[in-house]
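Revision sheet: structure tokens.
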Amino acid sequence: MPPLHRRPGVSALLAVTALGSALVSPLPASAAPAQHCVGDIDGSGQECFSTYAQAIDAAEDRVGRTLAEQERALAEQEHTLSGPRTGTLAAQSSSDVIIGTYFEHENYGGATFTLHGDNTCQGGDDIEFWFTFPPEWQNIISSAQPWARCSLWLHSGPDGTGDRDGPYRENTPDIGGYMNDRTVSTTLG
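Predicted:
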């Protein structure tokens, strides 16, 4: 029986093709980018994490108290009968507070962005400050959770400009069709 003849180029071509496929295959799921971010209202110190729990832990570390402690202190302050009430925990204790969390999907799903800052809101209709989301956070927000007695407004333009909806004063699992996936900035009061 005559020897089997092989083309040396075919084996080499198959090996190179297999190697090329391995090199261009997508990254494994574990290499997905962090999707739960925390940022200061002044625009500094943004940091992202792989879980919501890690992001909230980081926000609590930054303000020096847990969300539960923050809300309890605000409730106690509101029920204090003696002395003037300023309406803000930060004004009385010179501390940061967690202001709110914005969610990518309805019902508090998907990626999150939690804001904290050295001022809390008065809870009224006056704008205390604004925040323009980083580019990767623009036009994706669908639900929100305000904290620290904040009223949140959502805007379609930067720096509190453009179309506006709100105020959102309570946990809002669906911000509605007007600003859904259109938010570029938020104003807080």
